[in-house]
Fold this sequence. Notes:
The protein is mainly alpha-helical. The chain has a single domain (35-175), classed as Winged helix-like DNA-binding domain superfamily/Winged helix DNA-binding domain (Arc Repressor Mutant, subunit A, Orthogonal Bundle), CATH 1.10.10.10. The protein has 7 helices and 3 strands. It has a 3-stranded antiparallel β-sheet. Helix 2 packs across helix 4 and helix 2 crosses helix 6. Mean pLDDT is 86; it is low at 8-14 and 180-184.
Amino acid sequence: MKAPQKKPRQRSTTKTSSPWAAVSRSGSHLNVEDFLTFRLTRLSNALRTNLTKPYLEHFGLSLPEWRLLALVARFAPMRFSEVTVRSGMDKGQVSRTLRVMATRGLTKTKTIKDRGARSTEALAAPVMVSITPKGTSLYKEVLPVARKRQADMLLALSESERATLYSIIDKLSATIGNGESAGEVE
């Protein structure tokens, strides 16, 4: 005799009230899956996986490469430190990604040296990052696809929802003090 099989647990199709509607200072009623950070991270990961990665793979770019290519295309020439701040990436990741991109002929870097700089001072010399014609060409190919995919996702919301979400993101960003607005491109 076979054991009865369990039916897979299904999500309720009825709308439930938001656990955020009446948040106390202690947040004692919030479960981990209700945390703002948890929900935004899941959304961000899903957007990256389902929205951004497919078109980047088509163009042979990783997410960090696209982020830096788009920033450098828009703001170049840029100091390495500015690339780091605007991208929201750490210095090591920016350095590694720019090295790969330079090898591919998409970007180039140039160390700015003062006249008469000693070798110890040269180690801290600013590095300027710029885009190559090949990088510009790739950027111009990817950008319309990226814009269309982003627009498709945003159009899932009404005009007022889009305006509200944009305002909410700005308010939360200002509250946590994220520094320079990165204008992250994904």
